[in-house]
Design goal:
- The protein is an alpha+beta fold and 397 residues long.
- The protein has 9 helices and 23 strands.
- Strands 1, 3, 4, 16, 17, 18, 21 and 22 form an 8-stranded mixed β-sheet that branches. Strands 13-14-15-19-20-23 form a 6-stranded mixed β-sheet, with helices on both faces.
């Protein structure tokens, strides 16, 4: 059982999905209740009726269908149908193979093509293309819209589902139909998957006393990685820090609390409310790494766990937020493993910032707003958001 805070931006290291927590929302790492209500057996009566109905249809298919389904495909179809009945855009079924891929995203190495993707309304957008990867060699570009995956088009590709289709075994290929620059004609790319290792954090000194850290996703190592980066930058003379959460889709709820705790000594980091209205408050761990001035960079693809961290830092006045309105992913998803293999992911709760702000569908408004095309992040000369963040931090030092 994992609790996700994920946005709609998934590092598809083969689609590298760096954090499946908020596009799914926040990935919760524990179960709220056996049936989600906290009341054992509360759903048993209705479940019995569902069982009978599913069994009846399965018998009809087995007896009469011209080409009966396999038990595996029938099971997958039944599960997917039940999840679709929730009208939960983040609900998804992972078969055993896909669930293995999903778990890899929080561990560090992936087999894929090397892009980050997110949903923008019904569109599936390439946020970035990682240098030196198959996607870069094939010519994919930021802002490309993925319309077809292996010849299949849908009105809306959910990020998690798209990632599962794009990722795969090393040496196999995936075909993508891409729309570029509003052209009606689709560009076709056949890309061979490869092992892609992308550091979850990069850091460097920008000025004589400013340390810069960019976090890609909130996996189980995120807090330790940032702490190490802070220590290394401090040793190089850093007196203030810029934490770059742009295009960070989120990840584990626990990781968002741990990262926030590096900068906030005490207090509630995030409140999670379930469908009964019961609230669970996650507090700072009391293990700060620095009390130096801090600026956090965010944009429209900063989501879920990224918004938990940015929201907490903003509410406590611990950091200045620079950039654009964040994505607004304020829901919590939970992964439940299935006894016969695989897992299901569905929304179980929503979260609030320390000051009680609900940001789902709204996002966070930066303290300093700097509008900028997302692809300009790639070049330091064109990255006006980073330049402004340096100015803001310099004024605080």
């Amino acid at each position: 059982m994992k609790t996700l805070l994920k946005s709609v931006a998934v590092l598809t290291a083969a689609a590298v999905v760096l954090a499946t927590a908020f596009a799914g929302g926040i990935l919760f790492e524990r179960l709220i209740g056996g049936d989600g209500t906290g009341v054992p057996g509360a759903a048993s009566a209705s479940a019995s009726g569902v069982d009978d109905a599913v069994a009846e249809v399965a018998d009809i298919i087995e007896d009469l269908a011209l080409e009966p389904s396999s038990e595996e495909s029938m099971t997958a179809g039944a599960i997917s149908g039940m999840l679709e009945s929730l009208e939960d855009s983040h609900a998804v079924y992972f078969n055993p193979e896909h669930y293995e891929y999903f778990n890899e995203q929080n561990m560090g190495s992936f087999y894929g093509i090397g892009i980050t993707i997110s949903n923008d309304g019904d569109d599936l957008v390439v946020n970035s293309v990682i240098d030196g990867t198959p996607a870069a060699a094939a010519g994919l570009q930021p802002s490309d819209l993925i319309v077809e995956i292996n010849g299949e088009a849908r009105p809306r590709w959910d990020v998690d589902e798209a990632v599962l289709r794009i990722r795969g075994e090393e040496g196999t290929t995936v075909r993508l139909g891409v729309r570029r620059d509003d052209s009606e004609e689709l560009l076709q790319f056949t890309i061979e998957r490869a092992k892609i290792e992308v550091p979850n954090i990069t850091s460097e000194m920008l000025e004589a006393d400013i340390g810069y850290m960019k976090l890609e996703g909130f996996n189980q190592n995120a807090s330790a990685e940032i702490r190490t980066a802070i220590d290394e930058l401090r040793a190089q003379g850093a007196r203030g820090y810029i934490l770059d959460l742009r295009n960070n889709p989120g990840g584990l709820l626990s990781a968002s609390v741990e990262v926030s705790s590096l900068f906030i000594a005490d207090g509630v980091i995030v409140t999670v409310e379930d469908r009964t209205g019961e609230a669970e408050r996650h507090r700072a761990a009391g293990k700060t790494a620095t009390d130096a001035p801090l600026v956090v960079l965010v944009n429209g693809n900063s989501a879920s766990a990224s918004e938990i961290v940015a929201g907490a830092l903003q509410d406590y006045g611990r950091a200045t937020l620079v950039g654009e309105q964040t994505f607004g992913k304020g829901s919590v998803q939970q992964i439940e493993e299935l006894s016969f293999g695989g897992a299901v992911k569905l929304t179980i709760a929503h979260y609030l910032t320390p000051k009680g702000r609900a940001i789902d569908g709204i996002g966070l408004t930066p303290d300093v707003i700097v509008e900028m095309e997302h692809e300009l992040i790639a070049e330091r000369e064109t990255d006006t958001q980073l330049k402004r963040a340096i100015e803001v931090l310099a004024d605080e030092l």
